[in-house]
Write a structure and sequence with these properties.
The protein is mainly beta. It has one helix and ten strands, in the order βββββαβββββ. A five-stranded antiparallel β-sheet has the order 1-2-3-9-10. Strands 5-4-8-7-6 form a five-stranded antiparallel β-sheet. The longest helix is centred in the middle third of the chain and has 5 residues. It is globular and about 30 Å long. About 20% of the residues are buried.
């Protein structure tokens, strides 16, 4: 639960296509075109066409909706004060990455120029 800096600029994600979702026991990775990724070890919430799902590290429930995001392009990025990262895609799709690990990192955002650990 490191939080997001108040002045964080994540607009570089806008316009990027999600090209891969990689699933592991403790982590889910969202890989975007042009060498950007988000690796999550906490929780995510997904909403697609009114369907909602939540995934937690170490669980398998909720993963199926994450796969429906592949091929979608980010239209809007919003960072909240509590560390939640919200990515909106076209066609009513939304991914929320939560900063929910109190003692460990919740997620990492990686770009060609560096990383941000939350």
């Amino acid at each position: 639960m490191y939080g997001l800096p108040r002045d964080v600029d994540l607009q570089f994600l806008t316009g990027r296509e999600l090209i891969q979702v990689a699933i592991g026991k403790w982590q889910i990775q969202f890989n975007f075109e042009r060498d950007a990724s988000i690796a999550v070890e906490s929780r995510i919430r997904i909403q697609i066409y009114g369907q909602k799902a939540e995934w937690r590290s170490g669980e398998t429930a909720g993963i199926e909706l994450a796969l429906c995001l592949v091929g979608s392009t980010v239209t809007q990025v919003r960072a909240q004060h509590d560390g939640t990262l919200i990515l909106r895609f076209g066609e009513g799709k939304e991914l929320q990455v939560l900063d929910s690990n109190e003692n460990l990192e919740s997620y990492q955002i990686t770009t060609p120029t560096g990383s941000l650990i939350v």
